[in-house]
C-alpha cells in the first residue's frame, strides 16, 4: 500500500487506512526455511502478513498476541521446522573444530554418514520424526544402500549423538526426546559368519579358474588361503609379497570412505605376517601374467598394487573397496549357475569376509595346525593368560598352515590348458 493512502498511528506495525479509517496491522511471523524452486536448495526467509481491523484496540491486541507468540517460540525452540542439514552444520561447527582433535579418517566417516542422513531426512521436520521413522531409515540403509549391519549400527550411534546435540540445545531446536535410542533394526538381516568346508573351498577355487578376469583368483585366494580382509586385499603391494620365503607382510588397509578411500594400518592398528601356499602362489602368478599382458608394457600409477581388475589396468586407477564385495556377489551367482547346470549342489551364499572365517575355521578344526600360527595369520588377539600374554611371541612361523593347504587343496590347473 502506498504511503499516501495511510497515516501513522505512532505505534510500530500499525497504520490507519485513510479511505475508510480501518487499521492495518503488519505482523512479523519470524523466519522460516523454504525450498527455492529454482535451485532446489533450502534457505531462510522472513515470513510476514497483514490484517485489517476496525479499531485501534483490536489492532493493538493482535500485535500484542503476535509478539507474545514470537517470544514463546524463541524460548521453547519452536521457531519453524528443524532440518537435518542445518543440524549437521551446527554439529560440525561445534565439534569438528573443537578440542576433540578428531582424525581426518573419522571425520570422513562422519561426512559419509551425513550424506545418507541428508538424502533420507532432507525435507523432513526433525521435530516430527519418531522412532518408527528412524527404523524405516535403517531399512532404507539395508535395502537401498546395501549397507551391512555393522555399518548401520554406526549410523545409529551417530544419529543418537545428533539427537543428544539437539536436546542439549532445546531453545534452538525444540526437541526434548531422543527418538533414536529405542529404535531397533526390525527386519534387518543380521549376518552370521558362514564358513565354507574344505570341500566347498576346493570347489570354489576350481570354479575361479573358469573366470576370464584372473583378478578373481586374488579376490578369493588371498582371503580364503591367507586370511586377509577386504581392506588388506585392496592395500596389498607387490613389495610386501615374499615368494621365496612364502610370506606376505600385511601392513596396510585401504578402506572405503563414502565414494573414496583412505589407507591406514590394518584393524587393531597391528601389522602381521601371513603365508603363501602352492595354490595361492600359482594364483598370484597367473594374475600377474594377465596384468602384464593387459598393461602392454606401460608403467601404471596403480601398478604397485597386487589386486587389479582389467578395468583398473586399462584405465589406470585403483579398485574401490566397496566394489570388491559386489564383484564377489556377482561371482557367486555365476558359479552357482554353472554348478546347477552341471547338476551339482550350489555353494552357500556368503559374504567376502566369510572367506576369512573359512580360513580360520578349516585350519583350527583340522587338528593339524598349531592354533598360534592361525592366530598370527589372522591378526587375532590370543587368549589372555600368563603364558600367552607374557611368554608367547609370534615369530612368523607359518609352515604348518602351508603344509596343510598343500596336501588338502585339489585345484586342477590343467583346466587352463
TrEMBL record:
Organism listed in the record: Clostridium symbiosum
Record-given protein name: Site-specific integrase
Listed InterPro entries: DNA_brk_join_enz, Integrase-like_cat_sf, Integrase_catalytic, Tyrosine_recombinase_XerCD
Keywords: DNA recombination
GO annotation (BP), single: DNA recombination
MF terms (GO), sorted A to Z: DNA binding
Record bears the keyword DNA-binding: no
Pfam families: Phage_integrase
Domain Tyr recombinase: 191-404
Lineage per the UniProt record: Bacteria, Bacillati, Bacillota, Clostridia, Lachnospirales
Keyword Ribonucleoprotein: no
Amino acid at each position: 500500500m502506498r504511503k499516501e493512502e495511510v497515516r501513522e498511528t505512532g505505534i510500530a506495525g500499525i497504520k490507519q487506512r485513510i479511505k475508510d479509517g480501518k487499521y492495518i496491522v503488519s505482523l512479523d511471523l519470524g523466519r522460516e526455511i523454504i525450498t527455492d524452486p529454482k535451485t532446489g536448495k533450502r534457505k531462510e526467509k522472513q515470513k510476514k502478513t497483514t490484517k485489517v481491523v476496525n479499531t485501534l484496540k483490536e489492532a493493538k491486541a493482535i500485535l500484542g498476541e503476535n509478539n507474545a507468540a514470537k517470544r514463546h517460540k524463541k524460548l521453547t525452540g519452536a521457531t519453524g521446522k528443524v532440518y537435518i542439514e542445518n543440524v549437521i552444520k551446527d554439529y560440525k561447527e561445534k565439534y569438528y573444530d573443537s578440542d576433540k582433535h578428531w582424525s581426518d579418517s573419522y571425520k570422513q566417516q562422519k561426512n559419509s554418514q551425513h550424506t545418507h542422513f541428508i538424502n533420507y531426512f532432507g525435507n523432513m521436520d526433525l521435530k516430527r520424526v519418531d522412532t518408527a521413522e528412524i527404523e524405516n531409515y535403517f531399512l532404507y540403509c539395508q535395502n537401498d544402500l546395501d549397507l551391512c549391519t555393522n555399518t548401520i549400527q554406526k549410523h545409529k550411534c551417530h544419529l543418537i549423538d545428533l539427537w543428544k546435540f539437539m536436546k542439549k540445545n532445546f531453545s534452538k531446536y525444540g526437541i526434548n526426546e531422543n527418538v533414536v535410542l529405542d529404535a531397533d533394526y526390525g527386519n534387518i538381516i543380521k549376518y552370521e559368519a558362514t564358513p565354507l568346508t574344505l570341500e566347498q573351498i576346493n570347489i570354489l577355487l576350481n570354479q575361479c579358474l573358469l573366470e576370464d578376469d584372473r583378478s578373481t583368483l586374488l579376490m578369493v585366494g588371498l582371503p580364503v588361503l591367507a586370511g586377509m580382509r577386504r581392506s588388506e586385499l585392496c592395500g596389498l603391494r607387490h613389495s610386501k609379497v615374499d615368494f621365496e620365503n612364502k610370506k606376505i607382510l600385511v601392513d596396510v588397509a585401504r578402506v572405503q570412505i563414502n565414494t573414496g578411500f583412505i589407507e591406514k594400518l590394518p584393524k587393531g592398528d597391528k601389522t602381521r605376517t601371513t603365508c603363501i601356499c602352492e595354490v595361492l602362489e600359482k594364483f598370484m602368478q597367473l594374475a600377474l601374467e594377465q596384468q602384464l599382458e593387459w598393461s602392454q608394457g606401460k608403467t601404471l600409477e596403480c601398478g604397485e598394487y597386487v589386486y587389479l581388475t582389467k578395468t583398473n589396468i586399462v584405465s589406470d586407477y585403483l579398485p574401490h573397496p566397496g566394489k570388491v564385495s559386489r564383484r564377489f556377489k556377482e561371482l557367486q551367482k555365476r558359479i552357482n549357475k554353472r554348478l546347477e547346470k552341471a547338476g551339482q549342489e550350489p555353494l552357500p551364499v556368503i559374504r567376502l569376509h566369510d572367506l576369512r572365517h573359512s580360513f580360520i575355521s578349516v585350519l583350527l578344526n583340522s587338528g593339524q595346525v598349531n592354533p598360534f600360527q592361525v592366530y598370527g595369520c589372522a591378526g587375532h588377539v590370543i587368549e589372555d593368560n600368563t603364558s600367552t600374554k607374557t611368554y608367547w611371541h609370534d615369530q612368523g612361523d607359518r609352515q604348518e598352515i602351508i603344509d596343510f593347504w598343500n596336501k588338502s587343496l585339489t585345484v586342477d590347473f590343467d583346466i587352463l590348458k
